[in-house]
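Notes from the 1:1 (GR / supervisor)

We went over the backlog. Supervisor wanted to see one worked example end to end before approving the batch request, so GR pasted a single chain during the call. The sequence is below; no edits were made to it. Supervisor asked that the structure be written out right there so they could see what the output format looks like.
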Amino acid sequence: HDLTNGGRTSFLNRSPIHVDKMLTPGHFFTAYIVSDFFVPNAKDYVWQIFIFSNLVDLDHLLGMLRIFMMSHTDRKNVTIDNIVDWCRTSIHEPIGMLILMALLGTLWLSGIKSPLIPLAAIGIVVHYIVDFLTVHTRPFDPIDRTMVILFCDTVKRRFWVELVWTVIAGILFLLAYYI
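Structure output shown during the call:
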């Protein structure tokens, strides 16, 4: 179940496609915890924090649709490289984060002082950090498309890292929200 095999064997044969969806609440919980430190009344913006912390993942939809439309036989040949190619655009990597931060910074500096701007920035930055620590990324895309996998080089390890991350972040979220 090695994810670092250069994409030679099918990823989908070993891992249900929903493995990485555990991070959807994990992104939110982590972004809320960070937002609670920096934005007064973060509790009033729970839905916005959820949206901002997961907005970057919208680029997954076309790739997931492509995989969904495949025959079972074709799906057996899908590799981790295919999934990264189809489901992660450059906007999902640090260059995308820089572009989005420049856009948010421009809005802020132009006089729009809404708390939604720092909440969006926190959600986006936290999303990138969580992804970099827990999934396969291409941090220098589009210049260098080398895939980097820090801790989750097997499907099993990825599952456990995402599960533990989400549970711990969820507990900390509950403490931050209710205390």
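Supervisor's comment: The helical segments are 23-38, 46-54, 60-68, 72-75, 80-87, 94-109, 116-134, 155-178.
Batch request approved.
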